[in-house]
């Protein structure tokens, strides 16, 4: 476990950032138009919102149902709207800057009424845009998760397996706003695909086993010819990881912890490896990604598929004989344009990438975290159809 002061520092930083963003939005959307009623209402809306987000993040996952989901839904919906308003407001800054520059160079005469009109027009347009895009984002997560087929050709994959069907689930985030009823629907759709193997690449839960056991139970009904496999994501380490690993084992899910297993028999087989989350070493107790250990002792002539929660693991995996890495973590950015910032951290955001001689597939995720919204990054149940790539 991390020491308490690291969590305190993180919470303090989140509160400061959230407060700064709310003040910026208040200044641009409520104060700048210079309408007394709007300023008064906006002051209270953004002040209360700035307090609710960190408070809700801290408490919602620990409150019992049905109170917790109601609070979490309200808080995280507001968070999503704030994110949208923030990016839309930033996008309006060049317009304000151009008008200010024209007035400063006297290309336009100074006119307070013009500035007031511009501020009011931009405030209204941003608010309307945020509501419309936010509504679209909410509708996106309420719709059934799409099945996304992806064809993969691997040079060492055994031709005797034909087209091998791997279903990837990732970033499900069962917790305050996603429950077992939703997961049961996902499980039914996965089983209908008749997969050969199911891979769950981390961030399955946001909460303790005692609170979420019944909501994760539908995973026990997953059916695949060669089984269901799991690797940890960072959120498991916020939720009592060792208890969750035991619970998943009870449900028949095989957890891969820096190890590999043979899938299939004889020449109709390949190796499947899994590593702990990239940052799990920070939590001690034997956790930590160890790819060298995961591939130790295997025949390098056999095909190797790696499950790793964070796509940045690919930089090491490409040097370790991995043919295909399956990852999540990024949510595809979840709310545009957040994906640009994700790329700075991970190097990859969504879809199929080539890293050296290796292929990397990064899923947009099956659930969502925080805001119940997806904009420009739809959730997916990934159906990977893997077969041998014939050499020219």
TrEMBL record:
Keywords: Hydrolase, Membrane, Metal-binding, Transmembrane, Transmembrane helix
Keyword Metal-binding: yes
CDD domains, per database record: MPP_YkuE_C
Domain Calcineurin-like phosphoesterase: 165-332
Pfam families with a match to the protein in the record: Metallophos
InterPro entries named among the record's database cross-references: Calcineurin-like_PHP (IPR004843), Metallo-depent_PP-like (IPR029052), Metallophosphoesterase_sf (IPR051158)
Transmembrane segments: 7-26, 41-63, 70-91, 121-147
Coiled-coil portions: none
Gene3D superfamilies tied to this protein: 3.60.21.10
Alphabetized PANTHER family for the sequence: PHOSPHODIESTERASE YAEI (PTHR31302:SF31), TRANSMEMBRANE PROTEIN WITH METALLOPHOSPHOESTERASE DOMAIN-RELATED (PTHR31302)
Name of the featured protein: Metallophosphoesterase
Taxonomic source organism: Pendulispora albinea
């Amino acid at each position: 476990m991390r020491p308490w002061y690291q969590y305190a520092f993180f919470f303090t930083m989140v509160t400061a950032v959230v407060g700064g963003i709310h003040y910026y939005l208040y200044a641009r959307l409520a104060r700048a138009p210079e309408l007394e009623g709007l300023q008064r209402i906006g002051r209270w809306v953004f002040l209360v919102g700035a307090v609710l987000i960190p408070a809700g993040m801290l408490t919602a996952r620990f409150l019992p149902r049905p109170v917790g989901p109601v609070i979490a839904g309200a808080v995280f919906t507001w968070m999503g709207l704030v994110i949208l308003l923030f990016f839309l407001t930033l996008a309006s800054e060049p317009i304000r800057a151009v008008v200010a520059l024209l007035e400063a160079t006297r290309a336009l005469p100074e006119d307070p009424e013009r500035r007031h009109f511009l501020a009011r027009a931009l405030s209204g347009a941003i608010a309307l845009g945020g509501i419309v895009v936010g509504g679209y984002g909410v509708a996106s997560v309420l719709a059934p998760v799409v099945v996304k087929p992806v064809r993969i050709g691997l040079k060492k994959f055994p031709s005797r397996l034909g087209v091998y069907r791997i279903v990837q689930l990732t970033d499900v985030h069962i917790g305050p706003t996603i429950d077992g009823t939703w997961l049961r629907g996902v499980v039914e759709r996965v089983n209908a695909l008749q997969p050969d193997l199911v891979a769950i690449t981390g961030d399955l839960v946001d909460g303790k086993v005692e609170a979420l056991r019944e909501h994760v139970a539908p995973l026990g009904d997953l059916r695949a010819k060669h089984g269901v496999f799991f690797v940890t994501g960072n959120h498991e380490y916020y939720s009592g990881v060792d208890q969750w690993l035991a619970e998943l084992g009870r449900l028949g899910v095989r957890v891969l912890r820096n190890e590999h297993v043979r899938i299939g028999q004889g020449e109709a087989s390949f190796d499947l490896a899994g590593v702990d989350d990239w940052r799990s070493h920070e939590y001690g107790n034997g956790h930590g990604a160890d790819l060298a250990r995961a591939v130790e002792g295997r025949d390098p002539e056999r095909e190797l598929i790696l499950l790793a929660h964070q796509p940045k693991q690919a930089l090491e995996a490409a040097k370790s004989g991995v043919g295909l890495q399956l990852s999540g973590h990024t949510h595809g950015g979840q709310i545009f344009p957040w994906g640009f910032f994700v790329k700075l951290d991970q190097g990859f955001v969504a879809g199929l990438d080539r890293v050296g001689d290796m292929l990397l597939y990064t899923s947009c995720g099956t659930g969502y975290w925080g805001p119940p919204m997806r904009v420009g990054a739809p959730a997916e149940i990934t159906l990977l159809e893997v077969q041998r790539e014939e050499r020219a």
